[in-house]
Design a protein that fits this description.
- The complex is a heterotrimer of chains A (709), B (480) and C (238).
- Chain A is an alpha/beta fold.
- Chain A folds into 4 domains: 51-103, N-terminal domain of TfIIb (Single Sheet), CATH 2.20.25; 113-178 and 375-442 and 477-507, Rossmann fold (3-Layer(aba) Sandwich); 182-367, Dimethylsulfoxide Reductase, domain 2; 563-705, Barwin-like endoglucanases.
- A 7-stranded mixed beta sheet of chain A has the order 5-4-16-15-14-6-7, with helices on both faces. A 6-stranded mixed β-barrel of chain A has the order 20-25-22-24-23-26.
- Chain A is globular and about 115 Å long.
- In chain B, helix 4 runs antiparallel to helix 6 and helix 9 runs antiparallel to helix 10.
- Chain C has 7 helices and 10 strands.
- Chain C has helices spanning 24-32, 40-44, 82-85, 112-116, 158-170, 183-187, 204-209, and strands at residues 10-15, 53-59, 66-72, 91-93, 100-102, 123-124, 151-152, 193-197, 214-215, 227-230.
- Chain C has a 4-stranded mixed beta sheet with strand order 8-1-10-9.
- Chain C is globular and about 45 Å long.
- Classes of the chains: A alpha/beta (709), B mainly alpha (480), C alpha+beta (238).
- At the A-C interface, strand 3, helix 3, helix 8, helix 9 and helix 22 of A face helix 1, helix 2, strand 2, strand 3 and helix 5 of C.
């Protein structure tokens, strides 16, 4: 700059500039002076609205875990465990987690439908008034004895209501079953408990405080009686609250996640579990220098060793270890309790417990203080027999899918044809719903009311509350309301029924109570249920058990070209989870397979049969055949094949349809003397079909097994 | 300084010797200037039907295979390619490295040979420089093609922006971006500078649209002493300056891999290893191009003689050996390093289901050049040279393929290994860039003088045969 | 950010002795973080978007065979290999949480970070994955839904961290140990996952991390992971 700026000029100029600036600032539109912050500087994590949390109860399996559901603007966002709930203490399994994908499923039935033709999707929409009138008409026009209720995984409240209704209509009591039940051998435990303890209640195995556990096939981490309660038990067992880290021995032909979690896996020959348990009982008594109990009189240690493939020395070692422990425990389930001799096996497992006197002891066996409704397969068989004879005119089905999960040998579809009217209350277009005449969709789990009596996994009385967390998405109606309206039961509506049912709990010594029903009801919903403060179990006595004599099960070794069959439930539960995309996308814990079923074959066996990974294999039993993709599974007996349960639907929407295979087709229509479905004795043959169909695995086959890709 | 002196066999008669020399060396086979200029102009202006068909096919290839599939990829998502976890980079980056490698040819052949005054370079510097520019053009597309969100590519450019965010200068991708831009710019200038006198030549010998283009591009070149002086100086500066740029570019490309913790990438040797590989593939590509030019374009047999193939063949052999040295070095160190994941990886390369790629690499890069190129006869058979150098480039592609998808697929966790298989989009786009390169080259071959006439003439003027004692020697005068 | 908040060092401990490989964490993570499902063909081709995957290996030969399970998610490295290589600062370290964050808005999709992650814990949005109505109703409003072409990975449920920190700040108190639960931790049926502030000595996570059984994945790389594993369940080393 050539010209010099004097100080005077500078001051003048700056004053002028300041004035001009102020004028400009003052004159412009206000918005000009809002500091415009670039988008990149937006306050982070900002959103409008607040979440509301509701307590409710999971209905995905009979365990009755407490849930807290996060809702946001009337939508169910995330399902979380209820930390105060005594069953699951805030924990939750994949099936429970994806229940929002049940509510917001793409393939729901959106309103009551009159099916034009059975077995075909679509039909004519009807109004709820028509629907209720229709049900009413069926109640009035059908003789009581010709009405049948077939129920499944549903709130216990609805079961209780239906039972009441059935007796009011003079109809036979509702028949209830679930695939999880017969796959996990639950009904066997009930039969055993009724037999020896006089109460149809589930035993509670105190895994948490046990020191040494013998597990006969129970998949306690996956499904079994109460997976979350037993997973917590497993944690305690490993953490050794009362002493050393526990030691678990697993007797199972196939390594499930639970069997894999054991410290020792003994690939026992299928069908020899009872013998082994009895042999161990006898050896344990011997190790304790006691007389061997009556129940073990017939057992021959050598024969047991031979039948099971476990050496005598090993049996002796295990028995003395078991007998020497402070808190030994034996549990059982899965395929071990699903054969013809399931009752004997369960008795033997209990006897093994009884011989170390762990009944009613910490780390031992208790009886859950809740009577469980019978879920015997024999009753289901009888019902279908009745249908076949034409003696059922109207059939109501809720929460169960017999066309999918009953053995194909039962031929449920054929029996359905002899029924005049079938009314399904399914929320989803599953096989059975499509085969009905009317579909009157119930709310899904997060939209409806109810309560769930906790039957397993606890020593307390627990009634878990189910309340809607969102308004129903579609034009669905609570089945309880429909039945109350149509059946003329003395309740105003479902909530009235529920409130009357929980009335006795007000004075039953729970963790909370209230002077009058509305407050009690509010608390009941808020806490997610009602439970006792402490354990309240009936002491059980081992005498009857140890003195009984059971028929010795006959081991049934598989002929050379046939294989034992193990079917196990997966995250899909009884198969109703197959329409949830994220359950498909969740890898199977054992195989990491997603979106399909497979058949697990031991690599040696596969080599012998010329089967490779991803080959489509035909699996044939006496009763049917299916095709599945081979997965060479190293942790399986070579004389056994294993199939996951839950896929292989012919309906149930876009995610389920035509995906995987249904092992129920291989099952016999056979119940044991005690009424359980005896599927575990099924023998199958394998043959490659020559087709290949690579399955989706998360693992790298090349990396993990050193082949493929 | 005499760059090249050769005593010739005395058994030949004098005239025979002269004839041999003429046939052998372009520099000893001078033609009148006007005739030579005419030859170059003719080559440039002659277009056969075949040429137009080829141009149309490759143009369509660019349109459909490159831009069509790319467009679809942008709209649909990167998933249309075969990439997956853990192979996040695959064929695109492989081809990217391949093109950057090819682009080394121009600089290497032209600049380094120019700096070292290798006389055989004279007729084909232009062809090689064009390869550099077009190879870079094709290669530089890939960093864009492989972006998941290409519409935001400019976020990688350092400029003051509304996001208040500079690019991350610690990221080798930013270095890459800068290096490639620099290289593209400098190599284009380096291509252009020696082109000016030839453009002026073309300007003076053409009419119509060609004349206007050349007039514009020749920057009023008149050929005065001062102009020549400045041009020589500029070329000289660029020839020296571009060499470090060239080394840096491929080193930086190699750093994309070497600075990561990825097993098999994290190696100090990657810089020189990549450069050697790049030169090997680049020189080979020059041979390929020269063969095609020589056999398809008019008058080119005069300019591109067997001596060129011979010399380039030697270079290919030397660089193949150097490459083998680095390859061996890499294996040796990893073997003794004993890091299990690397050992697994190397075993996988050699024995896994994709071992054929590894064998292709070794056979094409080592076995074939070593077995053939020592032989003068083979080096002097253009077709054989074409086949060999094509194979070398196949081998180098296999090398990059081994380094990128096959290495990423086998990292530290065997549970997560994954095999990449290219899909239609990957392959199409890669072929599309080959089409682009060929298309650009085809266009250029008819638009700019492919032979640097003035350099050839300069060389011819400098060369002479002198009598020295009883024999004759060729001598080169220093003109510059 | 109005006030300067003292930096936390969020960390996680995974007790492999308790991990049964049940996959509940995987589903919980997906449900919390709006992770789309990709379907059979895509997952088969390694394009599943699981933020945690449970590595299942086998050890031993039949009949002494048994699987080992190891959940691997983003290890939130203190010295993260993914950070320096990102050209656009999409993969950066957060000062306050001391975790590695992925800024979806900035990501241009070079996928360099994923190549450089030794834990292969990053996933890429190969497509725009559909969120059809009504399935989309259950999307978590706290978590961005990612579009095609961006990287994503485990965030240590940063939305939950923020929520807890902001709540504590608003109530004028220190954040309590165990106040922040990641979705995986919350679901884990055996409680094998512990989450908390590693900078506090007495926090549950710090105590667990000091266990003699603790190790970190690929420790030799110097990435300083903030996920600590406790040996057990067949996993006995880094």
């Amino acid at each position: 700059m050539s010209k010099k700026l004097s100080r005077r000029d500078f001051l003048k100029l700056s004053c002028a500039a300041a004035a001009a600036g102020m004028v400009l600032v003052g004159c412009g539109p206000a918005s000009r002076y809002v500091t415009r912050v670039p988008y990149a500087e937006m306050p982070e994590y900002q959103h409008i609205g607040k979440s509301t949390y509701y307590a409710t109860t999971c209905r995905e399996c009979p365990a009755g875990c407490g849930l807290i559901v996060r809702t946001f603007e009337g939508r169910a966002i995330k399902v979380e465990g209820n930390p105060n709930h005594p069953v699951n203490r805030g924990k939750i399994c994949p099936r429970g987690l994806t229940s929002v994908q049940g509510v917001y499923n793409l393939d729901r039935i959106t309103g009551p439908v009159m099916q034009g033709r059975r077995g075909k999707a679509g039909g004519q929409a009807i109004s709820w008034d028509e629907a209720v009138a229709l049900v009413k008409k069926r109640f009035q026009e059908t003789k009581g004895s010709e009405i049948a209720f077939l129920l499944g995984a549903m709130p216990d409240s609805l079961y209780d209501l239906t039972s009441e209704l059935a007796s009011a209509l003079k109809a036979p009591a509702p028949v209830r079953y679930s695939a999880l039940n017969y796959l996990e051998g639950r009904d066997v435990w009930l039969a055993v408990a009724s037999q020896y303890f006089g109460t149809p209640s589930f035993p509670y195995f105190d895994l948490e405080n046990a020191e040494i556990v013998f597990n006969f096939g129970a998949e306690f981490l996956e499904n079994w009686l109460s997976p979350m309660a037993y997973s917590r038990g497993y944690r305690g067992f490993r953490k050794g609250q009362l002493g050393a880290r526990g030691y678990m021995v697993s007797f199972a032909p196939r390594q499930s996640i639970s069997a894999a979690a054991a410290d020792e896996w003994i690939p026992i020959k299928p069908g020899s579990e009872a013998l082994v348990a009895l042999a161990l009982t006898r050896l344990a008594a011997y190790a304790r220098s006691e007389f061997s109990p009556e129940i073990t009189r017939q057992v021959d240690i050598k024969a047991a060793a031979e039948a099971s493939g476990i050496s005598e020395e090993k049996l002796k070692e295990l028995a003395s270890r078991f007998a020497g422990s402070n808190r030994p425990l034996a549990i059982g389930g899965g395929s071990a309790l699903a054969g013809k001799s399931a009752f004997e096996t369960a008795s033997a497992i209990l006897a093994l417990n009884a011989t170390v006197y762990n009944f009613n002891q910490t780390g031992g066996v208790f009886l859950t203080p809740a009577k469980a409704p019978s879920e015997r397969f024999a009753d289901v068989q009888a019902l279908f027999e009745k249908m076949r004879s034409g003696a059922v005119k109207t059939l109501f089905i809720h929460g169960v899918n017999p066309l999918f999960d009953l053995p194909a040998a039962l031929n449920a579809a054929e029996a359905f044809k002899r029924v005049e009217t079938i009314v399904s209350f399914s929320s989803f277009p599953d096989e059975t719903a499509l085969a009905s005449d009317y579909i009157l969709p119930d709310h899904t789990m997060l939209e409806g009311w109810g309560y769930q009596t906790v039957l397993a996994g606890t020593t307390r009385k627990i009634v878990s509350a189910i309340q809607p967390v969102v308004v129903p998405l579609y034009d669905t109606r609570s089945t309880a309301d429909v039945l109350i309206a149509a059946g003329g039961l003395p309740y105003k509506d479902e909530v009235d029924f529920l409130q009357q049912k929980i009335l006795p709990l007000m004075s039953a010594g729970g963790t909370f109570t209230a002077p009058e029903l509305p407050s009690f009801w509010a608390k009941f919903l808020q806490y997610g249920g009602w439970w006792q403060k402490s354990a309240d179990y009936a002491a059980i006595d081992a005498d009857a058990l140890l003195k009984s004599s059971i028929s010795m099960p006959e081991p049934h070794p598989a002929p050379a070209d046939q294989y034992h069959l193990v079917v196990y439930p997966t995250q899909f539960g009884d198969g109703s989870g197959a329409n949830r995309p994220w359950l498909h996308e969740t890898p199977n814990p054992a195989t990491t397979v997603m979106w399909n079923s497979w058949v697990e074959i031991h690599p040696q066996t596969a080599k012998k049969l010329g089967i490779h990974d991803d080959d489509v294999v035909r699996i044939r039993s006496e009763f049917g055949e299916i095709e599945a993709v081979a997965y060479l599974y190293p942790a399986l007996r070579p004389d056994t094949v294993a199939l996951p349960f839950g896929l292989g639907h012919e309906a149930l929407g876009r995610f389920a349809e035509g995906r995987g295979c249904n092992p129920a087709r291989l099952f016999p229509n056979a119940s044991s003397q005690n009424g359980n479905l005896a599927w575990a004795d099924t023998l199958v043959s394998l043959s490659p079909t020559g087709k290949r169909r690579p399955i989706a695995r998360q693992e790298s086959r090349h990396g993990v097994y050193g082949d493929g890709e | 300084m005499a760059a090249e002196t050769k005593t010739l066999s005395a058994t030949h008669s004098a005239s025979q010797e002269g004839e041999d020399l003429r046939q052998e060396h372009l520099m000893h086979d001078p033609k009148p200037r006007e005739e030579m200029n005419g030859m170059v102009m003719e080559a440039m202006q002659t277009t056969s039907k075949k040429y137009w068909i080829a141009l149309a096919i490759f143009g369509l290839g660019v349109l459909i295979l490159l831009f069509g599939f790319w467009g679809n990829q942008i709209i649909t998502g990167m998933g249309v390619t075969g990439k997956r976890r853990p192979v996040f980079w695959a064929l695109y980056i492989t081809t990217f490295v391949f093109w950057i490698g090819i682009s080394h040819a121009g600089t290497f052949v032209s600049a380094i040979l120019r700096v070292f005054k290798a006389e055989f370079r004279r007729p084909f510097t232009r062809a090689a420089e064009l390869m550099t520019t077009f190879g870079l053009a094709a290669g530089a597309l890939f960093p864009l093609i492989h972006l998941g969100r290409v519409w935001t590519f400019y976020w990688m450019i350092p400029y003051p922006n509304a996001r208040w965010l500079w690019p991350n200068f610690r990221s080798p991708l930013v270095w890459d971006f800068l290096a490639i831009t620099t290289y593209l710019l400098s190599s284009t200038i380096y291509l252009y500078l020696p082109l000016i006198p030839d453009l002026a030549m073309a300007r003076d010998r053409s009419t119509g649209w060609r004349h206007s283009i050349y007039k514009l591009l020749a920057l009023n070149w008149r050929g005065t002493e001062a102009e020549w002086h400045r041009l020589r100086k500029a070329i000289n500066i660029f020839a020296f300056a571009i060499i470090p740029v060239m080394f840096s570019v491929h080193t930086i490309v190699s750093w994309d891999f070497a600075v990561s913790q990825t097993v098999g990438w994290h190696s100090t040797i990657f810089g020189p290893y990549f450069i050697i590989g790049a030169i090997l593939s680049g020189v080979s590509a020059v041979v390929m191009i020269l063969f095609i030019i020589q056999s398809t374009m008019k008058n080119m047999k005069y300019f591109i003689r067997l001596e060129v193939f011979d010399s380039l063949g030697k270079l290919v052999l030397i660089f193949s050996m150097a490459w083998a040295y680095f390859f061996f070095n890499e294996y040796l160190l990893h073997w003794y390093g004993g890091y299990q994941a690397v050992r697994d990886l190397l075993t996988f390369h050699a024995q896994g289901p994709t071992a054929w790629v590894w064998y292709t690499m070794l056979i094409c890069n080592v076995a074939i050049p070593w077995l053939t190129l020592w032989n003068r006869k083979i080096r002097r058979t253009p077709l054989a040279m074409f086949i060999i150098t094509t194979l070398v480039n196949v081998g180098m592609f296999a090398e990059r393929y081994t380094i990128i998808p096959l290495t990423l697929g086998e990292q530290r966790f065997p549970f997560d290994w994954g095999a990449y298989s290219p899909r239609l989009t990957d392959i199409s786009i890669v072929i599309g860039t080959f089409c682009l390169f060929i298309f650009l080259y085809l266009l250029a071959s008819r638009l700019i003088p492919l032979i640097p006439v003035w350099e050839v003439q300069e060389g011819q003027m400098a060369h002479s045969t002198r009598k020295l004692g009883k024999g004759k020697v060729t001598s080169v005068a220093e003109l510059e | 950010m109005s006030e300067k908040v003292e930096a936390k060092k969020w960390g996680m401990v995974v007790d492999l002795d308790l991990c049964t490989g049940c996959q509940a964490c995987v589903t919980a993570c997906a449900m919390e973080n709006n992770i789309p499902y990709t379907g059979e063909d895509e997952t088969a081709y390694g394009r599943g978007l699981h933020w945690i995957r449970i590595q299942r290996y086998w050890k031993g030969e039949y009949p002494e065979v048994s699987p080992t399970h190891q959940p691997v998610m983003c290890q939130q490295c203190g010295h993260a290999p993914c950070e320096p290589v990102c050209p656009v600062y999409a993969s950066v370290h957060s000062e306050e949480e001391q975790i590695n964050v992925q800024v979806y808005n900035r990501c241009v999709g070079t996928r360099y970070c994923a190549n450089n992650c030794p834990y292969i814990s990053r996933t890429f949005n190969w497509f725009d994955y559909p969120h059809p109505v009504p399935e989309s109703y259950s999307l978590n409003p706290d978590v961005t839904v990612r579009r095609r072409g961006v990287m994503e990975k485990c965030t240590f449920c940063v939305q939950r961290i923020r929520h807890a920190v902001d709540t504590a700040q608003a109530e004028g108190r220190e954040i309590e140990d165990g106040e922040v639960m990641t979705a995986c931790q919350q679901a884990c049926p055996t409680g094998a996952i512990i989450f908390g502030d590693l900078s506090k000595k007495e926090s549950a996570v710090s105590q667990a991390a000091r266990s003699q059984r603790s190790f970190r994945l690929l420790e030799e790389l110097g990435t300083e992971p903030k996920v600590v594993y406790l040996k057990g369940g067949g996993n006995y080393g880094g």
